[in-house]
Amino acid sequence: MDLIEITVGDETWKVRKLPQYQVTKLIGPGNKDLADIHIDMVLASVVEPKLRREDVIRILNDDETYFTLITKLEEINAKGIRSLGNYMLSSIRSSQRSETS
Question: Where does the pLDDT of residue 101 fall: very low under 50, low under 70, confident under 90, or very high at 90 and above?
């Protein structure tokens, strides 16, 4: 597993790119809000330092850290996020077509 170092302010984290199935698990069946998805993404991505949910919530309470860290993690996982979005859109369109037939 290749680790990527990202720095936000004076903190450095070692993170990993998530496999597609894990990106899908982050989103879940659509019943999570965006804040919970972001917390889960940080917990799944950050390898060092080891973080607990409470640590992530504390870190993400700082607006600059929140937006910078989430943006960097989304960039690292952009391909998986796009693929999932395309899949979800095609599923919606497919179900809409079958309902109108």
Answer: low
